[in-house]
Amino acid sequence: MSKSESSYKPGRVIWAALVIALGGLLFGYDTGVISGALPSMTGYFELSDLSSGVVVSALVVGAAVGALTSGRMSDRFGRRPVLLSASAIFIVGAILAAVSVSVPMIVAARIIIGFGVGVASSIVPVFISELAPAHLRGRLVALNQLMIVSGIMLAYLSNYALHGVSDDWRWMVGLAVVPSVLFGIGILSLDESPRWLALNGQTDRAREVLRKFRPADDVMTELADIQRTEESASAEEGWGGLRDPALRRVLVAGIGLQILGQLTGVNAVVYYAPSIFEGAGLGASSALLATVGVGVVNLVFTVIGMALVDKVGRTKLLGVCTIFTVLSLAVFAFLLANGAPSGAASVVGVACVFIYIASVATGLDVVVFIIPSELYPLRVRGTAMSLTIGVNWTMSFIVSLTFLSIFNALGGAVTFGIYALVALALVVFAFTVIPETKGKSLEEIEREFSGGAR
């Protein structure tokens, strides 16, 4: 056996996935840090309510643009160069934010950081899915979500540790430089995706990369499967390739998941958790403490979802967990319909919020990136993922923007009743529209659900 053939190490693919998932850590940190930095920024820049909203939402705008543009670039130039670029974008954005002296400057920095977040949210799941073996792919792609949640928790911890330091907000946003540099160094140490290499005629390099991540007996079989699937696929790439009728089912499944997932109110509940807890009958200080508990529950149940996704399957995990989402939202809406909860009703209301967070963390949040990264065929995977995650960010922006207006106009009972009905629609969608991909190679999935994308 040659030296190259003996380079396989079982833990190498897990290490590679962890390195790539650092992009998710940056995603989480940069979205979470603003909660602690904004009060000091408000004083320094004399921000109004409107300008505060612009500073916060600038990241979402940048993320939507980054997600929509990065996929085509990754299909053309490779997953690795695009994530290296994202690392550089994160570094530039963090430094610019830390030295900002005006509102336009901090808004520009937040847009740049958001662009990096959008690139990472689109390409990280694709890169991991193309490296991972079928039996581990769900858990390894879910590392991205675990890192996002961990990044948010890290942001909360840094906000707490740095609060009160001179120019604390500069340190909070600037600290992102450290994981950004580590992310870039880590990506430099990795090879390009073997599937991208095979698609672009670099068969020898693809074989060498596979020899690092697969047992020697599996390398040639997997490479031949990749080549056979792509030989039968449509020649059209990029945005034009998405018009192929054979892709309709997988695009509906992937994009529909993003739309319905966001319309269950998940980001609104996280963003406005203190207000929701106060509405459930807690005082202001207790509501803030309960919000910390939300972060802990989110992290713990993400790990539980990761452990289950390759055992029970994507659609079953999503469907069953979302049933609990429906029940928690419905009960919470019922409580609010009967006035502000107090006493035992307050305890039930708080429990409903925690059950909601736990069910979303175990199901929806674990599979939301896994399912599209597996369903889309190789030739258009990056572009299709861009469209999908771009829709996700757009819906996130809409839901977060409208939550308080709907809540104040219609009341909490109607608002959470609407979210419950959407969650019920997601249960039906999960069991009837989204194909199950557990245990199948990406090539098997492509042939079965998009007909080779002819």
From TrEMBL:
Keyword Transmembrane helix included in the entry's annotation: yes
Superkingdom classification of source: Bacteria
Major location (coarse): membrane
NCBIfam families tied to this protein: SP
Keyword Coiled coil among record annotations: no
Pfam families, per database record: Sugar_tr
Keywords for this protein: Membrane, Transmembrane, Transmembrane helix, Transport
Domain (Major facilitator superfamily (MFS) profile): residue spans on this chain: 16-438
Gene Ontology cellular-component terms listed: plasma membrane
Family the UniProt entry places it in: Belongs to the major facilitator superfamily. Sugar transporter (TC 2.A.1.1) family.
Positions of transmembrane segments: 12-30, 50-70, 82-101, 107-128, 140-157, 169-190, 250-273, 285-309, 316-337, 343-371, 383-407, 413-434
Membrane topology: Multi-pass membrane protein
Coiled-coil intervals, chain numbering: none
Gene Ontology MF annotations: transmembrane transporter activity
InterPro entries: MFS_dom (IPR020846), MFS_sugar_transport-like (IPR005828), MFS_trans_sf (IPR036259), Myo-inositol_Transporter (IPR050814), Sugar/inositol_transpt (IPR003663), Sugar_transporter_CS (IPR005829)
Protein name, UniProt field: Sugar porter family MFS transporter
PROSITE patterns found in the cross-reference section: MFS (PS50850), SUGAR_TRANSPORT_1 (PS00216), SUGAR_TRANSPORT_2 (PS00217)
Localisation per UniProt entry: Cell membrane
